[in-house]
């Protein structure tokens, strides 16, 4: 027995003492009796506790599994925290004034005491099953998809029927008589992960964002204390989901519910590990308590139709609907990672408008947006709308690729399974780290780079891996996981453990992940730095990026495992395409260049035009004299697949001014109807090119470069598309009236004529037409989608996405189902009974995505 931990009687004694000392704050009651006659104690905490049942409430349950002592221990420490701090901590005072805490420190008293005194690994309660076995897994005994199991000896035996046990029927009766419960936390061990509730349909639910944000914000509080990050993982198809759990029972009743798995052992070293787990979870529970009111009838209603109005390369415009109310404003949150907190740090807008324009974003990057309404008087907040996920468009000079490994090029190699290692590729998941069974295990992922042309410049590169299970990473704060680039040309057999293990890294990616940051259910992202991107560019000639993923390679005495499991998206238990390791690249194709000599040049006086001469300044009467020149771009530069990346106009001066006046010369890109003084005066100026040239600069040098800015490059492309000549005006300006201040520039016939130098890349500029004839039908219980791709040589494929709540307006606004050249796909992981929207986007090699073709699917039987 671990003497540092409280017994069940110690817990009751503490709660009774706390109630006696703080009767206005704490109320204690028994909600039932166990098989062995122990009371199931529930403590109610609120200011004033007399009115506790009239307030929105958080339900906390702990130690439903006997050996998971953390639930009971945290409950004690949390009550002590409240007692010690509620008089002066304003956040805690507000939470307790507005909300109520219902806390069952131990929902399995009999099993808990049996675990403490007889067999520490005991999990179930102490029902006598009548066949020589004892115990029911209480977290399989609720009526949420209860599953009958005849094996009474099993650790997950769910009992003869739902709610057969006094413990589960007691909490059921309490919950069903307390409609004020809005959030439920069920504390377990082990795993350092949140398991939000689900409805067994493998589809996004309206409360899905509420669940993820609650967990992410609790995670944020945990991280402040110890730096540790918990995973957030709801379970995914086609894996079996837990049946008969309390979490799903609460969720079915409209309660925002999650399991919190704490630590890496059921009964850890109290001083070293349990004390940390308790300390980091106290502010997390306090945060959740304060959120209960935001999911109550007192809260504003959820924002509706939160969707994307427009996506640009560095801007996003969002819009939504809400009933007109003067007392409501909206908070908009933006993050760059999935399952991120919504906190002050990423609050990007507080607005009363029904739209928001976000600016200064990065091109080709993922962003996640959340919104909630706020009552400006009470500050009570609404539940969240479903999260928006999008990707900004690529800049004009960029291309992008999302690369996935082929089935035979992603897997893991184990030291003790040499003959079976090839079977670990393309099958379910990667196990990386060390354990007694497998020995050292390393991951291997190879990406085919052949679609990226040699000489391309890699602007950004990001590797994504999905950790699916960390339960076998058992040692707190031990070991790191890292990724190395190895030379594929020196690897004869990627299925050979020794070859991969002993390969000398070309480079190890700069970011390693420590064990307490190695979380379940949250994508890990490695962003390549400049050195790593340069190495990636050099590997384009090999056409392969070969990665080795490694974890700790030795174990402390007495430990048997430190292994992290990653999804690979293949196999019967893989999560499919959107859980596959992937490499996100943004790159620029190799640049080409062209230099064009001016096709004409003129000097334009007030009363005359001098052809084939180029001068500008002021005449003897102080009248302005314009220089004008024109260029015609190479007809071989096809406007629909030419992107200008740089442009420079170079002029050569032949003299400078004797005058002491400050005279400067500017160049304008203009549109002209005719080349005479009147039309030049009335010209439509498009943009200044580069910076002005002073007389001092004329004295220093003869060559003058006028660099196009980003707007000028766009105008250059527009004029080229219209096959219009490029007209430039050289105009003089002076601080006061100047006379006889004329600068001559070398003209078209001189040895150094004016020239226009352009850098460009060849890539398609415009998106393709959208697919047509999108249709749905149910085929063997699965929704099948068919469509017609546009008939275009540039077509690479179509991208299919599903969204339950609104028509997708971005290819990333929902769950990706397919990307490729076919004209059909199946929604294999969806629920054919549920209403939703599907969208199909065509895309080219850039990729540019078309406008969506959308269909509303009414759900099977509702059409």
From TrEMBL:
The keyword Cell inner membrane does not apply. SMART domains: Zn_pept. GO terms for molecular function: metallocarboxypeptidase activity; zinc ion binding. Residues 4-285 form the Peptidase M14 domain. Keywords: Carboxypeptidase, Hydrolase, Metal-binding, Metalloprotease, Protease, Signal, Zinc. PROSITE patterns: CARBOXYPEPT_ZN_1, FN3, PEPTIDASE_M14. It catalyses: Releases a C-terminal residue, which may be hydrophobic or positively charged. One of its GO terms (cellular component) is extracellular space. The keyword Hydrolase applies. Pfam families: Peptidase_M14. Residues 299-396 form the Fibronectin type-III domain. Its cofactor is Zn(2+). Its EC number is 3.4.17.18. InterPro entries: CARBOXYPEPT_ZN_1 (IPR057246), FN3_dom (IPR003961), FN3_sf (IPR036116), Ig-like_fold (IPR013783), Peptidase_M14 (IPR000834). SUPFAM superfamilies: Fibronectin type III, Zn-dependent exopeptidases. Belongs to the peptidase M14 family. This is carboxypeptidase T. It comes from Pseudoalteromonas caenipelagi.
